Amino acid sequence: MVKVTFLHPDLGIGGAERLIVDAALALKGFGHDVNIVTTHHDPKRSFAETNNGTLPVTVVGNWIPRHIFGKFYAVFAYIRMIYAALAIYFMSDRPDIIVCDLVSACIPFLRMASDYVIFYCHHPDQLLTQPGGWLKSLYRIPLNYLEEKTTGQANKIFVNSNYTLKVFKQTFKSLDITPEILYPSIHTDFFDAATPQPLKNIFTDKLSNLPADRFIILSINRYERKKNILLAIDALATCIEKLKGTENFSNNIYLIIAGGYDERVNENVTYYQELYDYATKLNIIDRVIFLKSPKDSEKISLLNNCDVLIYTPENEHFGIVPLEAMYLRKPVIAHNSGGPMETIVNGVTGYLVDGPNIVEGFANKIADLIKDSEMRKRFGNAGRQRVIESFSFTAFGVQLDQVVNDLTKRN
């Protein structure tokens, strides 16, 4: 048995958080002693396993500011994670291995607390930052240098896809390292044990009046501009226009936009309002339903009750939601870029869309799936089989367990 501590900045409900939770569950299933350390954990906005005692969670450094007047988020993220690393160092029972992700600046300090550090690179942080003025560009120079140097100090580096591996090599040119690909998976036992509910039972104030013959397009992403959720609204409006006057037209086509929402994050608040105002401007606000931070059980119910998942981020480094949708037999429409190119098989489990008019492309594929229920069923069945064969939770756990044992030489 190996004692493994996972360190993650904010234990919310995004894809990165889901991976950390699933990795901890996988290693626990192999008999290892696991726990999670984080700088923020809101029981109302987190995965069930972090609240019900399944995975012990320790919060440190939550008192440290996340920014100053909306600036310097990256600097304070580094400070918070370094503080968390030092907190692990001063804990009485130090771990054999520490797994961290997102912020590499803490790795030198984690090496003081443990002999082995695994870093999971979802995507280089310097490529995720939003464009800014000259001051931001200036202060990012030392941060980008620090990210590259500290990433190279991990004993083992994972990336989540071939796409991210390529970006890693292009970004961190000074590192003579080839990370190992560890595809995220989904905890299929949890999905299998879940009992999906009718939408009106769990979202009575929003979804109780939907007609029985409705067609539901679902988008699940955090309320962040880089997730390009405006595309989902544009695609819905364009699809409705395309179908008007045809036998496939129905007034019962709806778009549900669901995802992580944190009132502490200004972008979440402003982007939600931007999306709402945009749907109102297009005169389709009666067709768009917004849901904030659905629980695990609610997300499974949403996926079970939708007809198609639309995944709007471009160059997404992986994307766990398409796997969840495919496992629950739902066709997926996504950009022909990034991680979805490795998970979705175009024309088999869904559609990958590119071209000069991306809105038109998404709308056309939605319309095709509205017209053909047999195609939706065929894509759904193929999607579930693909997840089972290529992205199984068992294979994910075995690979992670092997690395843990190899690092500590405890077989």
UniProtKB/TrEMBL annotation:
<keyword id="KW-1133">Transmembrane helix</keyword>
<comment type="similarity">
    <text>Belongs to the glycosyltransferase group 1 family.</text>
</comment>
<feature type="domain" description="Glycosyltransferase subfamily 4-like N-terminal">
    <location>
        <begin position="13"/>
        <end position="173"/>
    </location>
</feature>
<feature type="domain" description="Glycosyl transferase family 1">
    <location>
        <begin position="208"/>
        <end position="386"/>
    </location>
</feature>
<comment type="function">
    <text>Mannosylates Man(2)GlcNAc(2)-dolichol diphosphate and Man(1)GlcNAc(2)-dolichol diphosphate to form Man(3)GlcNAc(2)-dolichol diphosphate.</text>
</comment>
<dbReference type="GO" id="GO:0005789">
    <property type="term" value="C:endoplasmic reticulum membrane"/>
</dbReference>
<comment type="pathway">
    <text>Protein modification; protein glycosylation.</text>
</comment>
<keyword id="KW-0812">Transmembrane</keyword>
<keyword id="KW-0472">Membrane</keyword>
<dbReference type="InterPro" id="IPR027054">
    <property type="entry name" value="ALG2"/>
</dbReference>
<protein>
    <recommendedName>
        <fullName>Alpha-1,3/1,6-mannosyltransferase ALG2</fullName>
        <ecNumber>2.4.1.132</ecNumber>
        <ecNumber>2.4.1.257</ecNumber>
    </recommendedName>
</protein>
<dbReference type="InterPro" id="IPR001296">
    <property type="entry name" value="Glyco_trans_1"/>
</dbReference>
<feature type="transmembrane region" description="Helical">
    <location>
        <begin position="72"/>
        <end position="91"/>
    </location>
</feature>
<dbReference type="GO" id="GO:0004378">
    <property type="term" value="F:GDP-Man:Man(1)GlcNAc(2)-PP-Dol alpha-1,3-mannosyltransferase activity"/>
</dbReference>
<dbReference type="Pfam" id="PF13439">
    <property type="entry name" value="Glyco_transf_4"/>
</dbReference>
<dbReference type="Pfam" id="PF00534">
    <property type="entry name" value="Glycos_transf_1"/>
</dbReference>
<keyword id="KW-0808">Transferase</keyword>
<keyword id="KW-0256">Endoplasmic reticulum</keyword>
<dbReference type="InterPro" id="IPR028098">
    <property type="entry name" value="Glyco_trans_4-like_N"/>
</dbReference>
<keyword id="KW-0328">Glycosyltransferase</keyword>
<dbReference type="GO" id="GO:0102704">
    <property type="term" value="F:GDP-Man:Man(2)GlcNAc(2)-PP-Dol alpha-1,6-mannosyltransferase activity"/>
</dbReference>
